[in-house]
Every structure is written in C-alpha cells, then in structure tokens.
Protein 1
Amino acid sequence: MHDAGSAIISMMDTPSTIPDSFVVVYHPSMLEAAPLAEEIAAYLRELGQKEAHGSLYDPELREQIEDGEFKLLIALGGDGTMLRSGHLCAPSGVPILGVNLGRFGFLTAVQHENWKQTLERVLSGDYWIEARMMLRAEHRRNEGVLGVWDVVNECFVGRGEFVRPVQLITEVDGHYLTTYIADGLIIATPTGSTAYALAAGGPILPPELRNILIVPVAPHLSVERAIVLHEGSWVRVVVKTDHEASLTIDGQPSTKLQDEDQVYARVGEHTLQFIRVQDPDYFYRNLTSRMNQNPTTGALR
C-alpha cells in the first residue's frame, strides 16, 4: 500500500516550486467573492505575477485552466467550490489553494481574512502539496458505456424520487460481495469519507490514504457495515428495480438508471492536488472543530 506518511515527509523536506502564474476563481452566487477575487488579483499584479480571475463557470477561463496555462488556482468559496475546482484542475495537474468563504470548509486551506499571509508563504516556497486520490466511475447499459466521471468525493447509486429501496447487487474485483436492499450505496474516496459517507455512518479516513470506501444508506435486512477496500480494487453495482433509480456524482445533477444498469468504480488516473501551509497533522487538529459545527443552507457553495 502507498506509504502516505513517507510521501508527506518527502514533500516537506523538498523545496517547493514557486508558482509564477495564478488564476483566482469564485462561486458567482457568493456576493463577497468577486470583490475578494479582484483584491487578490490586484495584489498579485503588484508583485509582478501573471494572473487571471473570474467566475468558476466562465468558459474562456475554464479553457485556459484545462490547457494548463496557470501554475496555481485559488478557489474562493466553500467545499462545493473546491469540488468543482477539483474536477476542473485534476486532469491538467493544477494545484488548488482553497480560501474558505463557506461555513464548513473541510477542503479549504485558509480562512478568507488570512489569504495575504498564506500567499506570502506560497510565494516564498513555504508550502507542501497534499495529493488526494480520485475515483473513475462509469455508467454502463448492456455492453455500452453511457457516462464516465472523475470523482472527488463519492458516487451514489440508489433510489430516485420514490421513497422505495432498490436492490444493488455488489461485486468487488469480479467476486460477489452482497445484495444491498437499501436507499442506496455510496462509493467514496478518503476525501469523501467526511462528506455523505460520514452522514451515512461511515468511518473517517485520513485524506492521504488511497482506499475505496463503500457505505450502504438505510439498508434493510442487508449488510449494515461500511467496507474499506484496497486502492487496486474495483467495484461493480448492478441495479435491480421496477421503479426509478439514479446515479449521483459529487452532488451533481443525477443520472437516471434503469433495471440492470451497472455502475463501475475504481481508482482514477488523476490525482487532486491541494496547496497546504499547515503542518501535515492539520487534519486531526481540525477534525473536532469541524465536527462540532452545524452548517446551514448554502454552506457548501
């Protein structure tokens, strides 16, 4: 298994590359985000840095990011903004620095009032990169592949609008595991272990691990325990239902599933990179304070 602790120590001992081009993106529904993006951009310009800034959904800016024109992306928002930034940045290998404007901030690195001190450290090379595993999920029907996704948190296979359980025949590495009769099944990364999987009673995994987590949601006469799989494993779920079922990736709009549709999940080819300035044990120090918060509507933007 990947020795995550050794990898972090190695990164901490190696001088970090100082980025020379930045893009600042924000969630457009957060009123304070656009002015802060302009303030950060102006600061970078004063230092002679190449920069661009705008909405996370700006098509031209997204194309530049996908083409790898920037060395670092600064995301202003909450965990939802970090997820969307991860989907955008991981394929081109652009690291992300998250500035928290939400209320929860499991994924962000810094509170908004501390952005300047954090950037000073980044520009001096005083940071490390936290690599997080992603999943690749596929929706298959018969012999065809209908959809492929990069997954930061989780994919959820389960019921649709009708409050009725579905049968989910689940295999691991081609071997039958069990048939869940449940509202659904979560297949998550360690990053996702503190998201929906946590709410469903799953364990918390340190973010540097490379494991796959499967957690049933409201199982009825089925295996209730979460299962942690090795990073080399792959999961196949066959849906058995006479009513609507769905597949949801990282909280995005759902894809409808039919009876006998299949969902495959395995470790993806891309790795999500977060810029960190805290000590590597920050996750455990922050865990209790995060768990004691009570996020309200809009916290994940």
Protein 2
Amino acid sequence: MGVSIYKRGKMLYIKYEVAGKMVQRSTKLEDNPYNREMLKRQVIPEIKRKIESGEIDKETVKSKPLGWYGNKYTKSKEHLKTWHDVNLRVIWWERRLGPKRPVDTIKVGEIEELLEEKAEETSWRTAKVYLSTLSGILKIALRYGEIASNPASLAETGRHVKKTVEPFTPEEVRSILGAVDGWYQNFLALSFYTGARPGELYGLMKSDIDLERGVIHIERAVSRGEITTPKTEFSVRKVPILSPLVPYLKRQLAANPKSLYLFPGEDGGIMHGAHSTRKRWIRVLDKLGIEFRKQYTTRHTFITTMLKSGRVGLLELAQMVGHANTEMIVKNYARYIRDEHLKISRDIELFGDISSFSL
C-alpha cells in the first residue's frame, strides 16, 4: 500500500488506493520543501494508519456525483447567451452517465461510445461540442482533486466531414414563395432577399423598416422566446432593401397595426423562435417535392445568388449579412463562384493599344 505526493499547478496533492479504488485529494498546500516534508512526516503516516484500521474505506472516499459538478458547471455559464444549449448538453451527459455517477468511475471508453452515438444522430462536429461540455464539467472535478486526470481530454473523436448545404435555385425560390401566402410569404421573401438570420427577422420592429431610405435596421434577435443582441457586434447592421422586396414589406407593415413587431406572435409580442415556423417550412418543401434544407438555407441562398450576380463586391456582401470581413464569405462560398471569372469580357485593354507592335 502506497501513499504518494504529486504536484498540480502550484499545489500539492496526495494519492492512495483504498479497496481497489484510487483516491486523489488536494492538500490545499503550496509546493515547497517545508510542506513536502510535513506531509511525509505527519500526514502520510496518519493516512496509512487510517487505511489499515479501516477508518478510511471505499464508502468514505466516494467522490461527488456527476450531477453535482454538472450543476456547478451550468452555474458558471449563466452569463452566456447560449446557456440554454449548455444546460441541455449537461443534461444529455447526466442522463447517459447517470447524475449520481461518481466522477472518478467515468471511463474514457464509455465516453467514446456515447460520442459515437451522438455523431450518428448529428455529426462529429456536434459530438465534439458535447465532449467539450463534459470536459468542462470534469475539469471542475479535477480542480477539486476528485480525479487525477480528465478522461474527456483523452477521448478520441472521429473526423468531422462538413456536410455540403446546397442553396436553393432561383426556380425553387419562386416555387416556395408561390406556395405560401400571408405573413409567412412576407417572412420568406425577407429571408431570401436580405440573407438575415431567422432570429434577426423575428426581432424586427416596424420602426426598423425605412422604406424611404431603402434600409432595414437589424439591431436585435430573438432566441428561445427572449430578445437578445444579434450573433456578433458586426451583426448589428443596415441592410439595403432590394426592389422586389418592397411590396412584401409594405403588406407586412400594414398588418397587425397594434403590434410593434413586424412578425408578431399570437399575443402581439415576439415570436418564440425557429420552432414557430419549422413545421410550416417542412410542409412547404414536402408539398413541392424539394429536397429538405433548414430554413437557415435562405441565408446561404441569398449569399450565393448575390455572389453569382456579380453586382456586389465581397466586402459589401459581408457587411450586408453581418460578417466582420470577407474571410467567411471566401471560405464558405468560394466554390459556388469558382468559374465565374471565366465569364468576364476578353476585350479588356489593360495597357492601351499594343496591336501595332511587331511580333
């Protein structure tokens, strides 16, 4: 039976085994010669004595459960706009590993099995986000000295293969807009002609629409029924109103005269989010026989169509859709305009007339 001392950061920890269970505990002492000597002379002999006498047994050294650390983790993230998503991921792990599960019994192998399950349901990209959440929970246990290492940091994941999301064709856009009516037709018209995120459209107020100057002010978004700021600081922006969009905007501005919001919920207040239109969106695509894509694809469709039109520069487009610079546009959409440069006129005189020079 051995009791050893080890260092983590600036602090000293002790490690020993009881009934086949490895225990790690913080001594709350800084690493220096005096404290090491004191632990060797006083603390370690006492621990050995208690183990031999049975005062320390398997039950008395049981670590705190996953649920306890999960709760601390979610509380530490309450300031985030994405707190609700964080909480859902914590709940997912607790349901699969057990909220009462001692954290020091969680194995790397079972974490990997659960990640494979999540990757099959969604993607490896999503699974890695879930892994990051578990790693964050177990980092707290690590700081408390409950575990010697974080098993989540040792878990291996599969390679994420980014799914190609095809934008809607002009024919599909016309079909979709022709298959709906009322406020939802107006909503989709704004989606296709501005590239605004759905949450940004839910947050639009009638006062944000300036038909005289031809500008839409995007200053807020709606997420899970709550008004929040747009995704990034660059998402607060002014979007030009393209001519085909004007009739749809005029019709929507005239609707629901008592509401301040352009697309109000049933009570006249804000819509609660994507689920407000999800079923309607699915029915429309199914009715038309169009391959399913998320409603967010309206944004991708706007960006790709604008790029192909050649009527707007990369920086202008980035500003319209709320990107900080052109990097995201080039990275995500370059493949859609790969051969557009071949469509340029060949009759460009770069250096004046050189036809008279002898060859």
Protein 3
Amino acid sequence: MQRSCTLKPLLSRLGLALALAGLSLVAQADEVSVAVAANFTAPMQKIAADFEKATGHKAQLVFGSTGKFYSQIKAGAPFQLLLAADDETPARLVKEGDGLAASQFTYAVGKLILWSPKPGYVDDKGEVLKAGKFEHLSLANPKLAPYGLAATEALKALGLSDGLQSRIVMAENITQAQQYVVSGNAELGFIAFSQIHKEGGKLMDGSYWLVPSQLYSPIRQDAVILAKGKGSAATEALAQYLKSDAAKTIIKSYGYSF
C-alpha cells in the first residue's frame, strides 16, 4: 500500500514533465509562408514534407509565376521566403529593401524542354518546330515566367519567332503551359524538364527535346528571405534545409543541376 502511494506522486511528476516537454516542442515549432515558382512544385512538396519531419516546422506553400509573386510581395503579401525561377527577381527585391541582404542563394539551375504527351511526336533535335505540322504551341508568359522567357529566347535563336507567333498559346505560368498540352489545347509546349519527372527519377509518358542550353540564358533559380521573414526561425531553418544534402538529392532527382 505504501509503495502505491509513493508511485503516484512520481507518475504525476513524470506526466507533468512530459506535458511540459510537449508544450516546449509545440512552442518551438513554427510556420513559414513560402512563394514557390510553379516549375518547382513537385520537388518542393517533397522537401516541405521532409523538412517538417526533420524540424517540426511547417512550410505553407503557394505556387505561381515569379513575376506575379514580385507584384504580390510589393503589395504587401505575407510571404517570408521566395523560391524564384530566376536570380534577377530576388536580387531586385533585396535592392528595393523587400529581401534580406546576403540571404540570396541559388537552390537549383533549371532546364528547358519542348514536350508532348504523345510518344514519338517531339524528336530529339526539335525539328518538329521547323516542320510546323501543329496548330498550337504552349509557353508561359515571358513577362511573368523565366521559363517562358527562355522559350522565346530559344525560338529567336532558332529563327522561328515570327513564323510561329500566331500559333503560340500563352499561359500564365509553367504549370498552366503544361496543362494546355495535356488538355489538347496545344499539341506541344515549352516547359521545365522537372515537370515530366516523377518521384524516383522516372519520366512521364510522351516525347521531349532537351533544348540546348546555349539557346537561352541560364535559368538560375534563387531563393531569398523576405523582409517579413526576418527573425523567423522557421524561415531561416527552411533556407538552410534547401542547402542540405537531403534537399539537393531531391532537387537533382527532378532533373535540376546546381
């Protein structure tokens, strides 16, 4: 009987200690609001899940075009971290005081492809563009999306800009550009190489041409901590996690380089 009475206070104190420890973990966990370039959707979803498991912090992700994110950030959107599809937008935000100096870094280098869900439709040299046996070509708005700008640069380098202008279906971002092709509104389209990658490194069905890098400006995708993320432990933790070997393995598996 005496032993039972002795155990009760011990168990009570142990329960209290565990409860306090749990409260401490909850208090330390935080959320970070992240604006993510549309081409980086799949890898970032995987990275965010692993990041939460590793740190307890949660990443709230919003996907879209880099150009629109810039406008939203300037208008006061509560984003704390930007993962852009270029390096110019983060640099501009830093210069204008909306991004933290010295926080900008390249998290991935993207690759442009010409893609169709139809096997054998796009050849491995892009001759399908010159043959012109299609009605519509999808690409992202070059004023909003760096991959769209890269596509227009490639068409210009190939001398095809004027001849194909009437066939271009303009999308708001790179995700929509792919959707136009999938839905049949365009037979083929310029998208990011990462978009046809599935988890495990496998590629989606269809055919594609990996556009030679000399035909467009390098797509250096930079991240930057925004002014609203200053002092946020979760924001700083995610920025660091993107540089980790675990994150780089995921990024590389989706066709990006560094």
